[in-house]
Amino acid sequence: MVQKAKILLVDDRPENLLALEAILSALDQTLVRASSGEEALKALLTDDFAVILLDVQMPGMDGFETAAHIKRRERTRDIPIIFLTAINHGPHHTFRGYAAGAVDYISKPFDPWVLRAKVSVFVDLYMKNCQLREQASLLRLQLEGGQPAAGEEAKESAGLLAELSARLAAVEEQAEALSKQLDESADAAAVATAAHLERKLTGLRRALDALEPGAGTGASQVPSQN
After folding, report:
1. Per-residue pLDDT averaged across 55-73, rounded?
2. Can you tell me whether residue 30 is helix, strand or coil?
3. Which of 57, 40, 59, 125 is nearest to 97 (CA)?
4. How many angstroms separate the CA atoms of 216 and 183, rounded?
5. Contact 99/193 with Cβ under 8 angstroms?
6. Which of 48-52, 75-79, 146-150 is the least confident region?
7. Residue 106, SS3 per DSSP
8. Nearest to residue 20, comparing CAs of 103, 153, 119?
9. pLDDT at 143 over 70
10. Where are any strands of DSSP class E within the chain?
11. Which of 27, 37, 140, 184 suits a disulfide with 66, CB 3.0-4.6 Å?
12. What DSSP designation does 119 have?
């Protein structure tokens, strides 16, 4: 049985959480509610999430501060965050969201189909990454035991690697195009955000390359996917 991915919904208004659940229920994943930044951080201590939908305007710890805490933690810093906001303060406000670690920034009222489609992409990537970790773990065990990988298992691992590599290549292409556009802009915050994204993509590419057949001669060459 394939385990369902968990999606964290963070909003201080119960009616907004109810609306998000109605929109995302069609994805058939596990939806977890948090009514504050503190409650979200507590949930992240014990559970793994595919993506976080985080409201910006919340009393006490707002979305920006919550995201900063999430990105400082080793366990949670790579979880994608989609900011949701009812107020559009312009480009500076948007760049602040990206600088805080958001992968997307959506203003309310949003199109339910668009939100569902975006969340679906991150859920799919999360599930593929889980499969890749399982295959890497199995490969490590086989290498440690001196056993060759079974034919079907080897094919499945190669297929997952190829699919993730293709997805990453598409993101790399978009990031390169964004960087070229920002070269013509004087906005320091946008340039810094793009540079941070490029560093993350470089790390992901190295991790994938290390898992390719022939990248290493022993189990120690297979990186752990945390």
Report:
1. 90
2. strand
3. 57
4. 37
5. yes
6. 146-150
7. strand
8. 119
9. no
10. 6-10, 30-34, 51-55, 81-85, 104-107
11. 37
12. H
With a cut of 90, say whether residue 105 has pLDDT above it.
Answer: no
Report whether 44 contacts 8 (CB < 8 A). Answer: yes
Extract the tokens encoding 211: 């898992």
d(CA 91, CA 70): 23
Answer yes or no: are the C-beta atoms of 63 and 86 closer than 8 Å.
Answer: no
| Mutual angle of helices 188-211 and 91-99, in 10-degree steps | 30
- Kindly state the DSSP code that residue 219 receives in the 8-state scheme: G
Indicate whether 55 pLDDT > 50.
yes
Identify the residue whose tokens are 């993506």: 51
The least confident of 27-31, 50-54, 153-157 is 153-157
What gap in Å lies between CA 226 and CA 191, rounded to an integer? 28
This prediction's pTM = 0.63
178: which 2 tokens?
């964004």
b/e sequence 4-22, b meaning 16+ C-beta within 10 Å: ebbbbbbbbeeebbebbee
Residue type, 69: H
| Residue corresponding to tokens 């596990």 | 30
Q: What are phi and psi of 106, to 5 degrees?
A: -120, 130
